[in-house]
Amino acid sequence: MQQSYPQQQPLPPAAAVAGGTGALLYQLGGPAAWSIGLGIVSIVVPFVSNFYFPILPIAGLINAVRALQRGRVIGGVIGIVVNVLGGLVSLFASGLIGG
Question: Looking at the whole model, is its pTM more than 0.85?
Answer without folding.
Answer: no
